[in-house]
Specification:
Radius of gyration: 27 Å
Number of strands: 11
Distance between the termini: 95 Å
Number of helices: 11
Strand order of the largest sheet: 1-11-2-3-10-9-8-5-6
Helix content: 25-40%
Length: about 400
């Protein structure tokens, strides 16, 4: 007896599978979007986020509407090479109101972008044809003073005459500018390449974001809403950043094919498998071993220690981090600044434990003994890590009802 094969249910199943494959193939992954702080590839900015976290800076992703910007002050909003359309007039005013309260907006975008035009940024190609741009004018900033040259591949300069110059080149052109807004400021950088994973450790590029963030001590928000899944780059810029090949990247080998090519290949493989199944072929379950290579930007994080050694002010920066940690401890324990340091240590021992207090004393003793001495790279990284461990312990500590400051007992 000949069995009649029903093709209609099979065609429906194939159609559903192909539709799902199309959506999966074309849906962009957040960790692959160019300029995203989740992207560890050459054209992402994850290395900068990891570096700031390594230095004890609070970082967060901004994925909400601009009308809901946090009420805190001293924060920084990073908008790096936005692909979406600029905000509407009323939304832009909300952003400016947030800046005027005492916050900072850093816009990393070419001058010919729609975002630059919306925020009044004007620019043109620099007169200098050098890719490694000499820097001869720096604002009064410990990081900026150490900058001698920047890798500036697109050679874009700012032409606004009403902006304050933070960095200028040898041709007296503006590379990085700042505009005051109330108690805050707008910072414009027309070369986003310098904060990419590939460009961060080129020349003195690393000092630019560190110098900008250091002046505002609160949270640094990386705006991910401008790298939406189906957002397209502005027409005046290429669809993806034009970086030279990076042999250490996770896409260094092979040719990049558009998603439709992989969809066709998937369809052919699926139809071949269904045809073999219909012919009665059987296969054992193969063992799949997926190897995925990630570039986490560890080399850029290690460059932080090198930069601090180069600046020569690593001991002073360690003391700043110690004071900052002390301020966080006082805030968590609700201890006023007027309480002497000895009483602070007693409160730590009573409420945070002997281990926390011993670690704190060791850190303070080590840093106080660095006056007039050079700091090794290993000691620098170790102290930063130990202070970060105490921050994590402090974040998990919960006060008990009977925990009152000793000064009130």
């Amino acid at each position: 007896m000949k069995v009649k094969f029903k093709f209609k249910p099979l065609l429906i199943i194939i159609g559903v599978i192909l539709l799902a494959a199309l959506l999966i193939t074309l849906w962009p992954k957040s960790n692959r979007l160019p300029w995203s702080s989740l992207n560890a590839g050459a054209e992402g900015t994850k290395a900068l986020k990891l570096l700031l976290e390594k230095r004890g800076v609070n970082t967060a992703l901004w994925e909400d509407d601009y009308t809901n910007l946090p009420g805190e002050t001293g924060s920084t909003l990073m908008i790096i090479h936005p692909w979406t359309e600029p905000p509407a007039k009323e939304v832009k005013e909300k952003i400016l109101e947030w800046v005027r309260k005492g916050n900072q907006l850093i816009l990393w975008t070419p001058p010919d972008s729609a975002w630059a035009s919306e925020f009044g940024l004007e620019g043109d190609t620099c007169q200098s044809d050098l890719v490694f741009m000499p820097v001869t004018k720096q604002a009064d900033n410990p990081w900026f003073r150490e900058i001698r040259q920047l890798r500036w591949p697109d050679r874009q300069c700012i032409t606004n005459t009403d902006h304050e110059v933070l960095l200028g080149n040898h041709s007296e052109e503006i590379l990085v500018s700042m505009k005051r807004e109330g108690n805050g400021q707008l910072v414009f950088v027309p070369e986003p390449y310098i904060v990419s994973n590939q460009g961060l450790d080129q020349a003195d590029n690393l000092a630019v974001p560190l110098g900008l963030v250091e002046s505002f001590g609160n949270t640094v928000y990386f705006d991910e809403t401008v790298h939406a899944a189906f957002a397209k780059p502005p027409q005046s810029r290429p669809a993806a950043p034009s970086f030279e090949p990076d042999p250490s990247g996770d896409e260094a080998s092979g040719v990049k094919y558009p998603p439709i090519v992989w969809l066709i290949v998937f369809q052919l493989l699926l139809l071949t498998g269904l045809w073999l199944y219909a012919r009665g072929k059987r296969f054992g379950a193969p063992r799949w071993e997926q190897a995925r290579k990630k570039r986490e930007g560890q080399s850029q994080v290690d460059a932080m220690a090198f930069w601090l050694m180069r600046v020569g002010g690593s001991a002073e920066l360690l003391r700043r981090q110690q004071k900052r940690l002390e301020k966080e401890v006082r805030a968590a324990l609700r201890i006023p600044d007027s309480l002497p340091e000895q009483r602070l240590v007693e409160e730590m021992r009573a409420r945070l434990g002997e281990h926390f207090c011993a670690s704190w004393n060791e850190i303070c003793g080590t840093i106080s003994g660095l006056k007039g001495k050079s700091v090794s790279e290993g000691l620098l990284v170790r102290l930063y890590n130990e202070m970060n461990v105490l921050r994590k312990e402090l974040a998990t500590w919960k006060p008990r009802s009977n925990n009152f400051p000793a000064s009130k007992r």
